[in-house]
Amino acid sequence: MTTTDGTVRPRVRGDREREVLEAALEVLLEDGYDRLTMDAVATRARASKATLYRRWTSKASLVVDALRQAKGPLEVPDTGSLRGDLHALYCGSGGLGGPTATATLSSIVTAVGHDPEFAAAFRRDVLGPRLEASHLVWARARARGEVRDDLDLELVEPALAAIVLHRAVVLGHAPDPDTVSRLIDQIILPAATPPRPAHRAPEQKEHP
Questions:
Q1: If pLDDT is split at 50, 70 and 90, which confidence band does 207 have?
Q2: Are 83 and 49 within 8 A, CB to CB?
Q3: What residue ranges define each of the domains in the chain, with the CATH number in brackets?
Q4: Which residues partner with 8 through β-bridges?
Q5: Residues 151, 175: contact at Cβ < 8 Å?
Q6: Are the C-beta atoms of residues 88 and 77 closer than 8 Å to each other?
């Protein structure tokens, strides 16, 4: 970063950047977004606040980067079935089945509602790639004929995350991969896929 007097200030990079982002996530989970401060993150990361501001212009940009790092790289699954893709996307690493995932959402839910800067960055940089992956998974399923023709994807796609968040935040039931798996199999797929043809027992021949 070049200052107005022409000098160059070092950026926070590499392992040091990772350490600061990990510290930011820890403070976020402990205090929530509203009470998180750059001072608190700097103290946790054993860095100066000025060092943080050389890399992040606000706590919104810092927290968004911390959330992106926590999620890790996103690989869009292509298992050949909607069920396989949903399980791969939501039950594995970076999915909805870990306590950190819902604790993180709980810590930022109020900020999304009243902090426009944070909400815009969160939806663009954290949710955006996940939504694109979800859209692709469902589009492939529709192309394969796995979902009902009249299915409203705008309603169904976010339903799984909404159920998990409601159970965690409102009911106090921490999620795990098995719970997410059962939600997919018992709620999402039955609601989205065409009904199976009723099985008819073979007619018995009458003996003369």
A1: low
A2: no
A3: 14-68 (1.10.10.60), 73-192 (1.10.357.10)
A4: 2
A5: no
A6: yes
